[in-house]
Write a structure and sequence with these properties.
globular, 213 residues, mainly alpha
Length: 213
């Protein structure tokens, strides 16, 4: 590491170490340095921005794929989720919004599958919130004329409804729902009376989390 040996061989060594122990956060950090070096220096075609972007996207996609078996084996390992989020953040930084948006869409589908396996995985719920926030921001950039600003609040609220119906004691879903309710009512331009009615029509668990102002 101290010799700054940024090669594919070293990258493969980090792969082997992380497959053995994904809690080794120092290796995750070094893998970040490796990829950033590849992003900056790995493409021999210096005259093509499109080639550069393709090169970066290939590295990002390869690493996202590498993480899937690890995520299945260690679904509550913070460092895997954290590194995956970093990869997508790099995509947002380095790639065009439409390309990046597709990656985030795929990520939303993945976290949906992970929560389908373990619906109470709080790492998954926290990650889903960040994925949705990134998608909303990108959507507003891509479609500047959108009247809803790319909001996914209604869709996410419906998602929590389905998850709670499947498991009433899914408190991660309830917590997510509680954070969505104020935004949902604001986007609906709900009056005070409408807010009260909305909560009155809900369940007692919903009232635990939210009260009208």
């Amino acid at each position: 590491m101290h010799e700054k040996d940024y090669t594919t061989e070293v990258l493969q060594l980090t792969t082997q170490l992380l497959e053995w122990n994904p809690e080794y956060y120092t290796i995750w950090n070094h893998r970040r340095r490796l990829l950033r070096h590849f992003f900056a220096h790995g493409n021999n075609n210096k005259d093509s921005d499109e080639s550069d972007r393709s090169h970066i996207q290939q590295h990002l996609t390869t690493d996202l794929t590498f993480l899937i078996p690890l995520l299945r084996k260690f679904p509550k390992c913070y460092w895997i989720w954290n590194y995956r989020l970093w990869l997508l953040s790099e995509a947002s930084r380095l790639l065009p919004p439409p390309t990046t948006y597709k990656l985030w869409q795929q990520e939303l589908a993945l976290v949906g599958k992970m929560l389908g396996i373990d619906s109470r995985n709080f790492h998954g719920w926290g990650y889903r919130r960040k994925v949705v926030a990134a998608m909303e921001e990108l959507s507003s950039e891509i479609d500047a004329l959108s009247t809803d600003g790319g909001s996914m609040t209604e869709a996410e609220f419906e998602y929590t409804t389905r998850m709670i119906k499947n498991n009433l004691s899914n408190f991660s879903a309830w917590h997510r729902r509680s954070k969505l309710i104020p935004k949902l009512l604001d986007e609906r331009n709900a009056s005070f009376d409408q807010r009260c009615r909305f909560l009155d029509e809900g369940t007692s668990e919903q009232l635990i989390y939210q009260r009208p102002y």
